[in-house]
Amino acid sequence: MDPAKNNQAVKVIKRIAGILAIPVLCFGIMELVCIANGITLFNGGYSTLQLFLRGTTFVFLLSLGVSINMHTGRFDFSTGAVMLISGVIGAKVAYGLNLGPAGMMAVAAVAGLVIGGLVGLLYILLKLPPMIIGLGMALILEGVVAIITDGCQPVKFGTDTSYYSFTVNPVALLILMALGLGVMLVIFHFTKFGYDYRALQTGQKIAVNTGVNEKMNALGCYIIAGFLFGIAGALSICSTNGTTPTINFSTIGTMFSCFLPLFFSGFIGKFINKQVAILLSCISYEFIQIGFGQITFKNAAFTTEIRSVVEAVILVAFLIYLNNEVKIVEVVMFKKFREKLKAKKIETADPEG
Amino acid sequence: MKKILAVILAVAMVAAALFAFAACDGAGTTSKEYKVGVLREDDTSGEAIAWQGYLTAVGKELGLTFEFVTTDSSTSEVNAINTFAAKGFKAILLFSDDDVIASVTAANKNKMYLVIPTGNVNDEQREQLNKLEYYLGSVSPTDDTDYQAGYDMAKYFVNDLGKSVFTLFGGATCYAVSMHVQRLAGILAYLCEDEGTSYDGAKTRGELVGKVAGQGVDPTKFVSTKYTITGYMDGFAFDDAFSTKLQQSMIAGGTSILSVGAGDAVAGIAYGIANAVASIDASEVKSAGVDAITSAYADCFNIGYTYDCGKYASAMAPGLVLLTAALNGNKIVDETGAAPRAGMSYWVATSLDELNTMLAADNETDGYCYNGKVVEYYAGKGYTEFLELCNADFEAAKTINANYGK
Questions:
Q1: How many CB atoms lie within 10 A of CB B166?
Q2: What pairs with residue A280 in β-bridges?
Q3: Among B355, B347, B353, B364, which Cα is nearest to B400's?
Q4: Residue A152's domain is classified under what CATH number?
Q5: Mutation target among A34, A54, A164, A306 for the B interface, most CBs of B within 10 A
Q6: Chain A residues near residue B50 by CB distance under 8 angstroms
C-alpha cells in the first residue's frame, strides 16, 4: 500500500476518532450506567428523545453565545440576565398579542439582540473590564425584569399548551439549532467581521495595527451573543411553562451550565470546525443530563447532590486532561517506555555505536 | 397674685387632661404614630408583596408607618436596625433570619421592640432572647403545622379524589430543611396508616422524619398493597434531568403530584408534559402544593393544581398584635411569662372558587380579614385569645372578622 495514502487514511481515522470520541464515550458510559440501574438512556422512547433535543438546543444556543465573548477573553456575567429579560419580554409580548411560541422566539431574539448591543455599547464606552460591566448589567437587567413583571410576579401562559409543545417539537428545535449554527457559520467564516474576530482572537495588537476596529467587533460580538441568548431564554421559559423571576444576581449561574460542553468543544475543536464541535459537545453533554434524569428516576441513592458532585468531577477531570494532554497521552501510549525499548534495540543491534 | 397663679395652674391641668383624653382614642389603639422598620430578605415573592400590602394598609389603621429594607447578611440587619434607631423608629419586624440573636440584641440595645412575625426560634435561641426586654416573640407555622399540612394533602387526594399513584416533590428535603421534611413525612405518614403500607420499614412520624431528612424518598423502599409512588424529586433545578424524571414518573402512572413547596413551578412543567406526551391522560393530572394563598396561584388551578395550602396576607396579624399590645403597654406573654413562640395555621383551598373566596376576604381593596379592628381587639387581650387568632383556619378567621372586624 502507498505509504502516503496509508498516512492519509490514518489521519482521517484519527480525525474521525477525535470528533466522535467524546459523544461516543458520553453515550456509552451513560447507557452502561443506566443499564446497570435497570433502565436505558432513552427509556421512554420518543418523549425522552424530545427532551434530549430540547436540552441540546438550549445548551447549544447558550454555548454558542457564551463562546463568542469567552474565546476573545471577555467573561460576560450578564448572560443569564440577558436571557431572562429577553425571554420575559418575548413571553409578555407574544402571550399578550397572541403571537404564539414562534412569535415569542422572534421577539425574544430581537430583544436579546438589542440588550446585548446595549451591554456591548457600555463595554466599549466605559472601557471597564467585561466582568465588571457584566455584573453591573446583570443587576440592572434583573431589576428591569422585576419592574416588567410587577415585582417578580410569575410569567405564565395560562392554559395555552402551545408554548410547551413548541419546546418538544423536534422540527422546531432542529430549525432553531440550524438557525444558530447557520448564523455562526456565516458570520464567523464568510464575512469580514468573522475574519477580524479571528484576527483579534489570535493577536489583538497586530490585528488593530492592520486596521481592524476592535471596538466595533466587540460590539458586534455582544449583539450576536444577545441574539442567541434571547432565543435560549425564550426556550427556557417555554420549557418550564413559565417562570417566576428572581433577582439579586440569581441569573449569574446560568452561563456556567454551558462550561462542560464548551470544554468538551475545546477537544473536539482540534479535529473539526469550532461551531460543529460545540454542537457535538452539547449532544454529549445532553447524554449526561438525560442519563442523570434516568438514573435518579430508578436509583434514589443518586441524589441531586451526588449528581452535582459527579458533574463537577467530570468538569475538573476534563480540565485536568486538557491541561496535561501530552503527558497523559505519553502515559497511556507507553510512549517513553517504547522509546527506551527502541533505543535499547538500536544499542543491541549496533553495540559499537 | 396667688389667684392668678392658681387660675393658670388650673387651666394648665385642664389642658393637660384634655390632651391626655384626646390621645386615648379607643381601648387597645396605639396612642400615637409609630414608625416601624421591616427587615426582609425576600422582597419579590407573592407572599412578600401580599404582606407588604397588608402591613401598609393595616398599619395606617393602627397609626403605624412601616419602612421596608431588604437585607442579605447579619451585618446588614444590624446596620439597618441601628439606622432605624437613629431615625427614631420604635420597633422592628424581623423577617430575615441571618443571625436572630445579633438582630434582637441590636434592637434591644436601642430600646426598640422586635417581633419575628413569620419564623420561629429554637429552644437555645429562645432562652437567650427571653432575657431581652424588648423582644416580643415569634409566630410561624410549627413542625406540627407543616406535618399536618402534608398529612391533610395526602388525605385529600386519597379520600376526596380517590387517588393512589403518586409522584412526590420534596423541595428542600435533600438539604434537611425542617418544614419540607415535616410536610413530606406528613404525606408518607398518611399513606402509611394503611395496614399494608410502610416506607423502608417506617410507619410513624418520628421514624419517617428520620428516614427522609436529608435523604428524600426512594420509591423502591415504599411498600404498599394500596398505593404506589412512581417517582420522587427534590432540589430546585428545574432542568432536563428534572423534566426527564418527572415525565417518566407521570408515564408510569404517577399523575397525582404532591409538592411540599414550589408547587406552581412543578404544576406548570407537569401540565406541559401532560399535554405533550400522548400516553399521559392530561385530565388525570392533579397537582398540589404547600405554597401560599395569593393571587399568583389562581392561574395554577387552571392547569391541574388542585390543592393550595399556605400562608395568607393577614398572616402578619399575630405579629402586629404582639407589637401593638407592647406599644400600648400591654405586652402579651405566655403562661410562663416569656415572649410567645406561637404556631400558625395554614389556609387550604381545594378549588379556584375557594381560593378566590379567600382572596376576596383578605385583600387590600375589599379589606383584610384581620383588619386594624381585629388587631386592636386581640392587642387588648391575653395569651389565650392570641393563640386563638394564630390557630384559626379560614372558617375560624371569617368568624373572627365577623365578630371583631366590623
A1: 26
A2: none
A3: B347
A4: 1.10.3470
A5: A164
A6: none
Residue A244: its H or E element: none
| Chain A residues close to B275, C-beta within 8 Å | 161, 164-165
pLDDT in tens, A213-258: 999 999 999 999 999 999 999 999 999 999 988 887 888 888 888 9
- A159 beta partners: none
Residues 137-156 of A with CB under 8 A from B: 146, 151-154, 156
Is the pLDDT score of A305 beyond 50? yes
- Where do we find the cell 391533610? B152
- CATH, residue B329: 3.40.50.2300
Q: What is the pLDDT of residues A24-50, one digit of tens each?
A: 999 999 999 999 999 999 988 898 999
Place of cell 397663679: B5
Where do we find the cell 408554548?
A163
**Inside any domain, residue B24:** no
How many A/B residue pairs have CB atoms within 8 Å? 123
* pLDDT band of B24, cuts 50, 70, 90: very low
Q: Which domain holds residue B174?
A: 144-311
Quick one: B251 and B176 in the same domain?
yes
Cα separations in angstroms, B297 against A153, A236, B172, B268: 11, 21, 20, 11
DSSP state string for A42-110: TTTTHHHHHHHHHHHHHHHHHHHHHHHHHTTT---TTHHHHHHHHHHHHHHHHHHHT-HHHHHHHHHHH
CB A294 within 8 A of CB A34: yes
Return the sign of the alpha-carbon dihedral for residues A328, A334, A337, A339: negative
Question: Grid coordinates in use for B241?
Answer: 434531568
B23: in domain: no
- Helix, strand or coil for residue A111? helix
Instruction: Please say if the pLDDT value at position B22 is more than 50.
Output: no
CA A286 to chain centre: 11
The dihedral built from the CA positions of residue B41, B42, B44 and B50, taken in this order, carries a sign that is negative
Query: From CA B318, how far away is CA B322, in angstroms rounded?
Result: 6
Residues A127-137 have pLDDT tens digits of 899 999 999 99
Nearest to residue B343, comparing CAs of B188, B126, B121? B121
C-alpha cell read off for A89: 419580554
Does residue B204 fall inside a structural domain? yes
Helices (H), chain A: 3-36, 46-70, 79-97, 100-126, 130-148, 162-167, 170-190, 192-202, 204-209, 214-239, 259-268, 274-298, 304-323, 325-332, 335-349
